[in-house]
Amino acid sequence: MKIVIAPDSYKGSLESSEVAGHVARAFKDVHPELTVIQKPMADGGEGTLDALAAATDHKRQSIRLTGPLGDPIDSSYLILRNDTVVIEAASVLGLTLVPTDQRNPERTTSYGLGEAILDALDRGYRTFLIALGGSSTNDGGQGILQALGLHVQDKQGNPVGSLGKDLYHIDSVDKSTLDPRLEECTFKVACDVSNPLTGPNGASHVYGPQKGASEEQVNQLDEALNKWGRLLNENNMDTPGAGAAGGLGFAFLTLGGDLESGAKLVSEAIELEEAIKDADLLITGEGKSDEQTLHGKAPAFIADLGSEYGVPTILLSGSIEGDRDQLRSKFMSSFSIVPSIVSLDDCMNFASDYLYETSVKISRLWGHILERSKR
Description:
It is built from 14 helices and 15 strands. It is an alpha/beta fold. It is elongated and about 85 Å long.
């Protein structure tokens, strides 16, 4: 018998690789004869790099680059065995890298992500998987493009900086100065939102406040992104996902990138479908599941893969809220790891124990059902 364990992370508590490890240990403790395959998942946001590192053959490349506040930081990217470079925006310009009292999208930059791409170009790589999500920026990716050679000027013809506030002063751009090696590149971009670059559903209005923008700043940034978009390529501004990660989606569209489902891209990179084909049971999960889980999140994508091959899927999450009937339309069964009414602190601090204990119960129940089916 073969079980595939492919959870997303329990954000703030356990990485996806840790979740997979605890579930696998529980099933092997109860049924030592089982074949258990661990395929930690991510949806293209924070944790994607670690999930891919845990599930694939890779090399990790360390790099010192410009952080979101303009200061040097140490970061890294992955090089997969097929020479695909994986760069995670959250590890370069993530909101978690900015102290709470310094969060202000006028003062953050995406420049470092462009530097990471340049470093990979210098090493001879041309195929990229970019994981968007969790960014602290709202600069439309102008920092990335400047790092890659784009000339940006104000009305007086002076170079413009790469912070979010510098968008206000951009009057002209020169795309002919972009690094010519970009023409040889393929960019697959993990993007699970459909926001356009600007407008009421755009980057500034929807995500700006989460990054520290005031109402006045939101309006100013939206206006600046509107001009930025028209200068670069007006046709890309309304493309679903252009507004992802503060407009980074738009920047990669400018580079000819393809915006795709983050869960799909990660599953392809870890060869998840191949593992599921002959599995008898599939287990996935996330920190909190509700009706929104069914709309583009990794567990729903995984359940759909399982359904294609007739493999039942169990949802095992930190907590489960909302309409469970809707979840049952996608998952054979759903479980919360929380054993009783406990505090949030206990949920976070004892997540590993709760997860293992619940997994043991599920594995015993599953074994009992199998035994009865053989009679």
